[in-house]
Amino acid sequence: MIKRIAVLGAVVVVLALGIYAVVTVYDNLMPVGRMWETPAIKPQEQPMNTMAQGVVPFSGGEAQLRATPAQDLQAPWQQADDAVIEKGRTAYGRYCVHCHGKNYDGMSTVGQSFSPLPTDLTSRKVRAMSDGELFHSISYGTPNGRQPPLHASMTPEERWQVIAFVRSLAE
Description:
mainly alpha; Cytochrome Bc1 Complex, Chain D, domain 2; elongated
């Protein structure tokens, strides 16, 4: 009886090692393998552009936007046109409506569960903020607030478009 158990155990060990060896050879030698290393790109992100060899950017980019004081940031247009506002409405529907709601008052399905509620985007407080302050709030979140940083999810253009859309709500 003990010999049978020992033989059965040895067979199981040999089979497990054989399966492990086959899988390892498959992973290492096949061009596709089992996708151990895949690029991590979230559905809302574009793949990162590859920088040319030896090129270092000296201006622009997210680091510069973050370092620029909010009062010094300005929207890339003087007066947003209807196309920009419409793109802002689309971006709002993708990134903001879940918390701020379809009435822009913070009383969405998700937003009403927060304490404090998400900011009412039609409020005087928001209208009094500069475009740069809104950009910083959307991009890097608010200290002690519920606004999450969205700089990794939204392009700078989308953030400015949402600001143009929010500004249009007061009209």
